[in-house]
Amino acid sequence: MSMNMPQKMQEEVEKRRTFAIISHPDAGKTTLTEKLLLFGGAIRLAGTVKGRKASKHATSDWMEIEKQRGISVTSSVMQFDYDGHRVNILDTPGHQDFSEDTYRTLTAADSAVMLIDSAKGVELQTKKLFQVCRKRGIPIFTFINKMDREGQNPFELLEELEQVLGIRSYPMNWPIGSGKQFRGVYDRQQTQVELFQGDDHKMIEVRKVSGYEDPLVKEIAGEFFYDQLIQDLELLDVAGDPFDYEKVQSGELTPVFFGSAINNFGVQTFLENFLELAPIPTPRRSTQGDIDPLSEQFSGYVFKIQANMNPAHRDRIAFLRICSGKFERGMSVKHVRPGKDIKLAQPQQFLAQDRDIVEEAYPGDIIGLFDPGIFRIGDTLCQGGNYEFDELPTFSPELFSKVTVKNALKHKQFQKGIDQLTEEGTIQVFRTIGFDDMILGVVGQLQFEVLEYRMKAEYGVEVQLQRMNFQFARWIVDKDVDPAKFRINSQLVKDKKNNFVVLFESEYAMRSAMDKNPTAQFLENAP
Ligand code: GDP
Q: Are 263 and 135 part of one and the same domain?
């Protein structure tokens, strides 16, 4: 029996879940990803996730810097099937040093999983990544990890979500005991108890109960934990937020799950609930209104470009998020910015480190396109239209370095490299007033290292970076901008398009400048 096209499209779109895991390094993202892939039967990949971190001599051709440091500089995509769903996990760099790439990858996700270490609570990187998701209003699901260790009180953790991130929460389950005494969780939705069993807590037993008053709960939890558990659950019922599906969809309420990734505890329940609640690919905004994923016309946008995955070939891969229609290998599409028709003949999909050729793909999927240097971040590819998806956001840089070229004779190459990297969105360039010194701004330290490496490897130029004390950049909109006003703990510079930008050494310096210039506007990004 052959299905007609619209029905097939609908099925393909409805089964897709595309998400990113946001967390601070060490919270357990690699471990959780690995477990999720195992549930999806993608065992071949599971070792790869770990391997990428541990092995310094990965067989593949990831960027040299990535191999040297044993970290993932740029994000890739992992795909697996579970229970009739097609799951795409967008991998965001787990290292302390992240970049705008990390932020941009989040625009390709339809939802996010926020992973939190139960002992550490909300950490800096989680907070930054959360804010990007928040701006987009996508659903956020929380997994509180490492419950097998002594952690913070679960109420304190929820309080922290609200205080630090400003998001309300609904615990889907609740821990019974913690640390060495962690017995399991009470599942509020399914009214069942999930237990850690055996000496190594590796066996999991699920017992259906009628509610938390059920005598079985007391029997299972034991006298010691029972009173506390009942008190907690009653408090949640009385004072906690009710479950509200719409608020979950709009990212105002986060469903919270407690578990332990390394012990595979609570991961499957989490996955199943997540797949149930997480959104399917939704319409995306474009210059010609919303583009429906079910539209038969293919469309997508480039959210990331990765260069030199194989230094020998100097190739670049443009990562495209499919927004509508069906992708078929060899299809012709319009590359809207330059207004050219191109043939997508050599798309590659990234399953951890392995490259596979993709024959077809649907909205929510990510494909990697071989890029001979024609793509830019934010580019739209589409069939039968002439629209562009809303420009990707740029993020205010937080780290700044003065950059000079060591060999003045290489200045032309230097400029070419800087232009190229600016275009890719790796760095932002500023120039000082008068002296015309070049200052680079980035979101994460790693971007400076990538810059140094690539300038040398691709353009044969050695650069010298001199870190500056600035922490904030604000685009200033004012009738008459006076450089003299920005001399103390700050500096006036210009961006690529000659907009005035002030760099500040501290939040205090920034606040006082704002106070002293009440008529001026200070913007986080270029106007
Ligand atoms: P990532 O940096 O976020 O990718 O974190 P990893 O997955 O590499 O985990 C960091 C460390 O935490 C590793 O030593 C893991 O073994 C450990 N870890 C992960 N999940 C758990 C957990 O549920 N309980 C405990 N005790 N340790 C965990």
A: yes
